[in-house]
Amino acid sequence: MENVTASEVAGFGVGTLLLCATIAAPKIDAFFSASQRSSLGMCKKCGDLKRMACSNCKGAGFVKDGGIFSFGLMDDQYQSTGGRSSIKCTKCNARGHFGCPECCLSNPASM
Ligand SMILES: [Zn+2]
Ligand SMILES: [Zn+2]
Which of 44, 51, 56, 82 could form a disulfide with 91 if both were Cys (CB 3.0 to 4.6 A apart)? Predict the structure, then answer.
């Protein structure tokens, strides 16, 4: 093992680093994403996507019938999708996402 070249060592180091990064990525992302994004000039909330998935319907735009908005629904909010009854997400108006409050409030024209 005396003839290990510098590039092999570097390759091993990078490989180990990538492996560690892959394993730890979710934690690192959760921990650093906000500060990273802001340091990159990106929006802290949406990462410059300009929009955020609706927390109620998880971005689908619809929620299953019998969900938390099952009360007081209008008939025209019902819609059959694939035989299963789903209702429009009233929180996002079936869009599945909102404009990012940070970006949109500061720059409404970007929507
Ligand atoms: Zn929604
Ligand atoms: Zn944003």
Answer: 56
